[in-house]
């Protein structure tokens, strides 16, 4: 029997659009753009929305996902199809579907990535139930100083994740931001709003394997501070290179040599496989991926 992962309750859809969204455990509305993992690595994966929405520049507009006709989903008082047409954006039928397992689910991180590549951040993001894959931990340190997520196989488990609906330009830009991953068709069941399973869905599969827990199984993603502290406590070699605290770690891995050595230690001491996450063939119903 699958074990569903709960997702916080989204705010009222009648609230003004401000780029803020409510979520359980945040004491009311939270600013989804306040944390930037690239600037503040210990905030990784960033602030993730409570529910579906459309990233529109500096705002996250709540999206009402009902029924199978995607153009009729509602955002900003109009249908999603009308909103995209109004903004001169690619319609839903021409967009690629990518499941986000780490910071790509954070509007602030997506906005920064797209703007760094001269691409407008206008992306529908739908909450989805993904069966068979959960967020794990990649066995490398990113150039920004955090230990990022990577998908791991979890047969029978269902995770609450996000599907990004990307146009060609956005997909190409996001690929460029993921040199430590390979985008592949996802070998998992993805359902949005209790509808039919989506086809042609992609995921970024890690190139470096995943960090194992104390039992040799792929470790699950936790808060960055807790993750780094745990890794330091478990590895004298990592402490010797990176220091004793998460703050020390972040400061020291800014150095390319230290960061490379930290990644080598993770792979030598803690690496395991992720299991079968991505398929090796392109899904016939999806546009050809950029590599």
UniProtKB/TrEMBL annotation:
Biased composition, class Basic and acidic residues, residue ranges: 269-285
Residue ranges, annotated region (Disordered): 1-22, 269-291
Name this polypeptide is given: Uncharacterized protein
UniProt source species: Nonomuraea fuscirosea
């Amino acid at each position: 029997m699958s074990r569903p992962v709960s997702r916080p309750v989204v705010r009222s859809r009648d609230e003004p659009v401000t780029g803020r969204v409510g979520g359980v455990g945040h004491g009311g509305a939270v600013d989804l753009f306040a944390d930037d993992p690239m600037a503040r690595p210990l905030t990784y994966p960033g602030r993730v929305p409570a529910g579906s929405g459309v990233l529109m520049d500096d705002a996250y507009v709540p999206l009402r996902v009902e029924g199978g006709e995607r153009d009729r989903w509602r955002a900003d008082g109009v249908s999603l199809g009308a909103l995209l047409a109004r903004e001169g954006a690619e319609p839903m039928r021409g967009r690629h579907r990518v499941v986000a397992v780490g910071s790509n689910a954070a509007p602030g991180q997506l906005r920064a990535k797209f703007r760094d590549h001269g691409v407008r951040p206008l992306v529908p993001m739908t909450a989805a139930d993904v069966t068979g894959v959960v967020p794990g931990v990649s066995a490398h340190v990113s150039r920004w100083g955090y230990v990022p997520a990577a998908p791991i196989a979890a047969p029978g488990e269902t995770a609450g994740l996000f599907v990004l609906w990307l146009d060609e330009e956005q997909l190409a830009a996001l690929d460029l931001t993921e040199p430590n991953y390979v985008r592949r068709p996802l070998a998992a069941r993805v359902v949005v709003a209790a509808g039919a399973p989506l086809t042609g869905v992609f995921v970024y599969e890690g190139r470096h394997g995943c960090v194992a827990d104390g039992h040799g199984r792929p470790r699950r993603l936790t808060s960055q501070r807790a993750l780094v502290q745990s890794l330091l406590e478990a590895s004298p070699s990592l402490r010797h290179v990176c220091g004793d605290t998460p703050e020390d770690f972040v400061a020291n891995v800014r150095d390319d040599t230290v960061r490379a050595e930290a990644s080598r230690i993770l792979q030598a001491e803690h690496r395991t496989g992720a299991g079968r996450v991505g398929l090796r063939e392109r899904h016939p119903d999806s546009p050809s991926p950029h590599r």
